[in-house]
From TrEMBL:
It holds the Pfam family PP-binding. It comes from Dictyoglomus turgidum (strain DSM 6724 / Z-1310). It comes from the Bacteria. The gene is acpP. GO terms for cellular component: cytosol; membrane. Residues 4-79 form the Carrier domain. The keyword Lipid biosynthesis applies. The modification O-(pantetheine 4'-phosphoryl)serine is found at S39. This is Acyl carrier protein. One of its GO terms (molecular function) is acyl carrier activity. 4'-phosphopantetheine is transferred from CoA to a specific serine of apo-ACP by AcpS. This modification is essential for activity because fatty acids are bound in thioester linkage to the sulfhydryl of the prosthetic group. 4'-phosphopantetheine is transferred from CoA to a specific serine of apo-ACP by acpS. Gene3D superfamilies: ACP-like. The keyword DNA-binding does not apply.
Amino acid sequence: MDESTIFEKVKKIIVDQLRVDENLVTMDSNIQEDLGADSLDAVELIMALEEEFGIDVQDEEAENFKTVGDVVRYIEKRL
């Protein structure tokens, strides 16, 4: 699966979970500052990503996710 396909899936999950406009979701979007995710949102987001991509994300790895691009690159490496 290539980066753009992963990004589109991640973007859809973010839009659904955080209820933000899809135009706000870019590779450079900061998940907390730009998209307004709080700690509960972050946990729910990780769970949705794990289910969608069939991966397990460790808490210490998830703490490094600052931007949407961080998430996409992490998933790309895991698949």
